[in-house]
Structures are given as C-alpha cells and as structure tokens.
Amino acid sequence: ANSSRPPFSNSFVRQMKLTVVVFALLAIGSIHALTTRDRPAFVTSPLAPSLLRNGRTHLLSSRPARATTAAWSMLDTEALAKAADESRGLSMDAITAAKSGHLGLPLGAAEIGAVLWGSQMQYNPEDPQWINRDRFVLSAGHGSMFLYAWLHISGYDLPIEEIKNFRQFHSMTPGHPEFPSSEHNTPGVESTTGPLGQGVANSVGMAAAAKMAAARFNTDAHKIFDHHIICLCGDGCMQEGVAHEAAAMAGHEGFDNLIVLYDANDVTLDKMADYTQSEDVGKRFESLGWDVVTLTDGHDMVAIDKAIGDAKANDNGKPKLIICKTVIGKGIPEVAGTQAAHGEAGVQYTTEARKALGLPDELFYVSEDTKAMFAKRKEELKAKYSEWQTTYGEWKAANPEQATLLENAVNKKWGTADEILAKIPEFDQTKNIATRIAGNVVLQPLADAVPLYVSGSADLHGSTKNLINNGGDFGKTAPKTYAGRNLYFGIREHAMGSMMNGFAYYGIFRISGATFLVFADYMRAPVRVAALAELPVGYIWTHDSIGVGEDGPTHQPVEVVSGLRVIPNLDVIRPADPEETAGAFAASIDRLEGPTALILTRQNVRTLSEIPVNTRRQGVLKGAYVAKQETGDLEGIIIATGSEVQHATAAADTLGGGWRVVSMPCMERFDRQSEDYKESVLPSSCTNRIAIEAGVSGLWDKYVG
C-alpha cells in the first residue's frame, strides 16, 4: 500500500469489505453454476495481485494466481493471459518507438482482446473480407495499437515490421484505424475511427445492414448471415451525443446482433471521468431497450468470455452492453488508473513494466507458445469457415439469382451511369418541377435497377421525397421488416451519417440518406470520415439556399454548399432541372471512390427544354457543360449551378449572341476532366466571366478569375 496512508485507511477497509462480499457472492454463484443445467456454467477467476493506489485497486498482471481452466469453461486462461501480456508488450514497444500514441486502452483492455480473438469472435485471417465474419469496431480509435497487436497475434497479414512502423507515414498502422482505401490496406480494420462515438454509431449501422442482409438472403434451408457486430468503446465515446442517438435506434429496432463492450476505466483525457460525468450509463442503456451486464473486474477473462458468449447466444430482440470495469494503463503502475495513461506518459516506465510482466529483453516479442495457440485457433476457425462455404455453395445452387445479386454487390458491380440512365424515362419537357420532386421520380427506376439500393431519412421522407415506393420500411415492428428498403432514422442526423457509413463499411448495400440541407452540418463529422475512407455513400439534401423562403434565415443554408465543397473527396452536385437531377443520381451510383451529395430545391425550377436531354444528363457526369452556346464571337461566359442556371440563360438572351452559359452542377467532377475538355467548356482566351449561385461567393474565383 502507499506508505503515506495509514495501514488500515477507510478506503482500505471498504475495499476489504467489498472483497469479502465478492468472494461470498462468487462462492454462491459457483454452487449455483454447478447445479445449473440449462446453460453453460462458469466460475469467475480469483482476483489477481493488486496495488492500492489513490484509493483504487490496480491489477498489475493478467496472469491469474492459478490456472482457471475448467471442464465446463474450456477457456485456457493461462495461455490467453500470456498472450494478453505480450499484446501489452507490443503496444509498449510500438508507442515507445513512435514517441507517440495511446498506451491506456491497449494495456487496460488486453484481456478483452485475448477473449475476442482467442475465443469468441468468428473470423478467418486468410479471408478478412468473408461476408459472415464478426465485425470488430474500435470506436475508441486512439487506442489503435490494441487492434494492431491483436490482428498481428491472431494471424492477419499485418507483419511485425508494420507494428514497428506504428504511426509512420504510409504504414499499415496509422495513428487511428483507417478502413482499407487507396491510402491504407490494413486487413481486419472494419472502420475508420477517431472522432469519439462515431464507431458506436458505425456499429449500429453495420448491425442494421446485417439484419437487412439476413432478411434479404437467408432462407429456411440455408443461413448464410448469422454473425455479430462487436464494438469496443470508452468513456469518451459514451459522452458523445452521436453514440446515444445511435444506441436509441439500436434499442428501438431490436438489433440483438450488436454487442458493445464499454471499457469503463473512469478516465478521460483531462481528468478522471467523474469530473465531468455522474450518470449511470447502464441504466441509460436499459431505458433505451438494451440488455446490460456489468463486469466489476473487466480483466477476468472467464467472466468476459461468459458475458460475450451469453450475448451472442441471446437473440431476444435487444442489443447488448457489457460494461467492463478496467484499469487504464494496466501493467505500468506509475500511470495505471489515471489520466496520465491516456497518452504516452507511461513510455518512460516501459522497461521495468515489461520485466514485471515477464517479457524478455527482446522487443516486439510474441512467444512461440502464443503463436502456436493462435495457429491452432486459426485452424479451428478455418474449419467453421469451410462448413460455411459448403452451406454457401448449397444456397448459391438453390438461389442463383440471389447469389448473382449478392456477389455483384460484394464486387461493387452496381451498373454504370449510362446503364442507370437508360432505365430512367425522360421528363415532360413542358412541366417545371422542383428537383426534390424530380429526385423522387428518378429514385423509383433507379431502385429497380439497383435492388440493393436503400434510402433513409431523418424524419423527413415526406419533405425530402426520397421514399422508395413499394420498398417496404426497415425495422422490427410491423408493418416494418428487416427486409425493408426505407430507413427511418428519426431526428438523429449525426447518428444517421455515422450509421450510413456503417452500411457502407458493411459492403452489401448502397446506402443513401436525406434531410434538409441546413442540417447537413449536424452530419459533417461522418461526411468527412466517409470522404476520408472513400465510402460510396449518397446524401440527399433538399431545401437548398434562399429558395426555402418564408422559413427564414435559420433554414436558409446560404453557406452550406460552399462549406461542403471544401471537404476533399466529396462530390457536391447541384442539378439545375429534372434531367440534370437524373444525371446526378446516376453519378452517385457510378462513383465508388467516395461519397456524393445531391443538393435539391424545394421550389420549382424551369425545365431547360432548349437543351437536349442527353446533353444535360451527360453534362452532369462531366461536372460542367455548355448549356447555351454563343452564336457569334465569344464576349463572355456566365457560369451557374442549380436553380440559378435558368436565370443565367435568361440573362444571356438579354446580353446578346456573344455570351455563353455554362452549367456547372459539380465542381469536383469538372476538375477531374481532361485539360482539353475543360478548355472546351471554359476557354482560357475568354477571361470575361461571371458566376451565379444563390449563396456565398467563395470558391467561384478559380473559374471566374
């Protein structure tokens, strides 16, 4: 005990009383477990050696005082404890080498990792994209070395050299996990995380996608989707509103395939967590319709294994929250259990800490025993994988059309823009309608052409007009079903954006979601991540700019379009009329390298019937095109977008035959065209240019000069 404390301080006495009570309860529970026949029985392992520090118990090692392997548990806790400590060593070594990173979670949650990869998760390291794998999301992405260590130990193609390159430029082990993209390809990383809470919402989106996949593809004879989504989050994630929004929907819609492990170490970056929070998170989640289990010793691997196993086995219509009371930075006594463990402050103590854990002097060490254990584990998993492959082959033979649909989705074969446009009838050129109305018309043949296209809204389907007719509504309670294509996210824009990312990470469905443009800023964080992760997400944002009218300035998003255009890798398309709207929707399906935002009007716009239909549709795909050709020497160019193109053409008619009108629905697509095409639309010889858009004027200077 700390020498500055009396030998029998009040906190020590309270702790001793608690220990007596715990052992009494464990004894009673053990007797009950031995006599229970209707479910697997487990006995909680004894408490590991501890250090009393600042009135808190700090477990120093994951090694139990004695092996707790029992005939009824079949869990080799001694071997897994050794692996847990070696994962701690990898994290210490990588963060020390990088002189940067977060030690707290990788050390504090090591036993959770040992149970997940060593016992409970369904995966195949040789096929990390297997569609029936359990998905693991590290919402607390700052603890990325936790994930990298376990991916390496469990046999994924993440070599030790990449562990040594932690947080280095273009390594496979960036500071926060990044979904495989053109920049990173780290097998086993299921989502890009870092902004806290988003990983929880991503997991809810994945769970929804998994429910939808099971409803769409499973049959009575063959079940090809029966996996789980597992998320690890921390106190910071639980404080973020996006996690609560998503959790509310998960509980309401009964996502019992979702398991969230809450690494409840009572620490945030600045202070101990009780400095800023006092709520009972478990009761909050219970009120949202979740099953909640609290593990007072979040390092007890038998208890962790039982809790996860019970959660996976319990298809009761409720998502599961497992609260694991852990010690942040466990293994480094100088910082364990304090906010100092939240970064790399413990690096200076790692040499002694490694010795205390029984690790050799060799850095980046994984023992032959651990390698052998996970090699055996991999063979067991591959046997189950082979059984699934047999089931899949039988399902495919019995359902060839469904199999083609599924395999095309996995291989991202959604159809080209031209193929999509061929399915969309031309509009009546004599009628003027709002582009949001045109969007609803376009959506119906698009949904027929892309059967796995799904559409959601933040309580605004009636206004955003993105309902798939006869698509059915998604959810647990009739008339909703999990096969429905219309998602009702409620008034939860932030969670909707992050859940849409979860759908995209899942990789089976083409997800789109809608709200008013003014609320796009509620979604900005997940939109940015979608762009970073190159996710083909579709946003339908309606009621653009001052055309909203009498709703007033709070609902007139004059700055939002320009604000969205500065997000790298986000295509922002603002179509001018119904035919451009058709091109915009086709462009959103055609694009696989990132998200696309469709900006649509509330008010009617003139149908540009003087321009050939194909010119308008194809012009959107190129980002900009000549909407009105000059009839004499070129005197000037008017560039316009969206609802302002109609005014640009009228102005050109007034100015005379020397004026050209360029419709530019998408700057980003235009910028990707060849120099020859860009010159043909905006010849450098003409510097007399004007841009028209009902919004702030930023960004147009690069075209106007």
How would you summarize the topology of this molecule?
Layout: H1 10-35, E1 50-53, E2 56-59, H2 77-98, H3 104-108, H4 110-120, E3 135-138, H5 144-153, H6 160-164, H7 198-217, E4 229-234, H8 235-239, H9 241-253, E5 258-263, H10 281-287, E6 291-295, H11 301-313, E7 320-324, H12 350-356, H13 368-398, H14 400-410, H15 417-422, E8 433-434, H16 435-449, E9 453-457, H17 461-464, E10 486-488, H18 493-506, E11 510-516, H19 524-532, E12 538-542, H20 560-565, E13 571-573, H21 578-590, E14 596-599, E15 604-605, H22 613-622, E16 625-628, E17 636-640, H23 645-655, E18 659-663, H24 667-671, H25 675-681, E19 689-692, H26 701-704
Parallel strand pairs: 3-4, 4-5, 5-7, 6-7, 9-10, 9-11, 11-12, 12-14, 13-14, 17-18, 17-19
Antiparallel strand pairs: 1-2, 8-15, 16-18
Q: What proportion of the residues is helical, as a percent range? A: 40-55%
**Residue windows where pLDDT falls under 50 for at least 5 positions:** 1-72
- Rg of Cα set: 28 Å
Would you tell me the structural class of the helices and strands? Answer: alpha/beta
Total helical elements: 26
Termini gap: 72 Å
Shape: elongated
Main beta-sheet strand count, sense and barrel state: 6 strands, parallel
Biggest sheet strand line-up: 10-9-11-12-14-13
Give a count of the beta strands, DSSP E runs of length 2 or more: 19
Strand share of the residues?
5-15%
* Mean pLDDT metric: 90
